[in-house]
Request: fold
Amino acid sequence: MRAIGFPSRCGTRCSALALIAVTGAAVALIGGAALAEATVVTGQKIAFTSGRAGNPEIYVMNAGGTGVRRLTHSSRCDGFPRWSPDGQQILFYSQRSGGGDVWIMNSDGSHERDLTRNPAHDGVGSWSPDGGKIVFDSTRDGPNDQIYVMRADGRGVVRLTTDPASDHNAVWSPGGQSIAFTTDRDGGNSEIYVMNADGSEPRDLTQSRSVDDHAAWSPDGKLLAFDSQRQGKTSVYVMNADGSGLRRLASGAEPAWSPDGRKIVYTILPKPRHAPDLYVMNADGRGQKKLTTGGDSASWSQAAR
Reply:
């Protein structure tokens, strides 16, 4: 993952989290955005990354911020949790194997296991709607990220993209037929593309000269929210699934939809060298409300806990 929010390069990713653990602040990185605690919201629970113990680890708490409990206990970086569709498992990124792999654990932190076991950089992507597959990006076949899919047990890895540019931040559509992703294949500028789930027919949705990143499907698959710097300041936009009907919602980045499609959770950088905060707003951009201090990279699970 990279561009406006968390970068795809795994080393940079955890270096930034380590900085937060030491200083309590984030610095502006790629695209002028900042890194902070990676947060995932699922129904009544939030899984998130924090350096509060001196090392980036994954924690879980109630949606209101109470009942904080640490899930991972590693001397290396753990972060970027992603709940499974049924809420029973958490996908996450870890450097405990050396380079950076896609890991999985039960929602209570038990039964941790490395899914990718590859010396290249593997970045966490997203689950298929049925929870049977995982799409992710990796540099295993070259210097730039490409998109791959594997079964939820880590087997059966298949490469989906083969462009010499970097493809990353892949997200599966709710219906399972399409995958949206970020790519710089158009002259080095990040755009939101969509392709069939088998990697065929990639097409540019945003067609902008600015940095567009972090696509998020609405639960009904009709809309895509994303962040962009097209007006000089990183903001959350929404468009129809075919790229039409573009409209700006609010300043912020890394949007994610609530299960009912009525709200969007996103991040705002309040001040330079400060950690971003997690906010929530109505799907039309109104009713903006601060959800938590020190949160980023939110993902709202479709399963209530």
Q: What stands out?
A: The two ends are 27 Å apart (CA to CA). The chain has one helix and 25 strands. The helical segments are 10-23.
